[in-house]
């Protein structure tokens, strides 16, 4: 199965790449590397949720939102290379979690993105990662994810 087929079987088909909300592009290819811009949990052109994790957004909901962010990052990669079967390795994931002051569960939230990538790609989806708590994200999004992938 292709990564797209695996995701579709999980009920998570790869959407069209989200339109940028500022002056940037969703992804850039440089040689065999694709770097995505930070992807928000956009669904059908709208932010799926707003607020801080550990306050207005539960950690469980934020984990699902992180998976949505990863799916949007894959959409940006696919728009750049045409086919996710061209991915040789998911190299790095950076997850940002807009956190209430006392929230320390950022790694659990970003697991939503990591688990989606591993489900899509298997062993080549296992990656290096950072999970960073921040005060606020664009549009008051709870989570943002960016990827670095190696491609054919």
Account of the 3D structure:
The chain is of the alpha+beta class and 152 residues long. A hairpin with a 2-residue loop joins strand 3 and strand 4 (46-47). Helices cover 30% and strands 26% of the residues.
List the main descriptive attributes of the protein structure presented here.
3 helices; 7 strands; alpha+beta; 5-stranded mixed beta sheet; two-stranded antiparallel sheet; 152 residues
Order of helices and strands: HEEEEHEHEE
CA-atom Rg in angstroms: 14 Å
Q: Kindly state the percentage of residues in helix.
A: 25-40%
The averaged pLDDT comes out at 97
> Would you report the number of β strands?
7
Largest sheet: 5 strands, mixed
Indicate the proportion of strand residues.
25-35%
Number of helices: 3
Shape: globular
Query: Looking across the biggest beta sheet, what order are the strands in?
Result: 1-2-7-5-6
> Unreliable segments (pLDDT under 50, ≥5 consecutive)?
none
The N- and C-terminal alpha carbons lie at a distance of 18 Å
Secondary-structure blueprint of this entry?
Blueprint: H1 3-9, E1 27-30, E2 33-36, E3 42-43, E4 46-47, H2 59-81, E5 87-98, H3 106-121, E6 128-134, E7 143-151
Parallel strand pairs: 5-6
Antiparallel strand pairs: 1-2, 2-7, 3-4, 5-7
Brief overview, please?
By secondary structure, the chain is an alpha+beta fold.
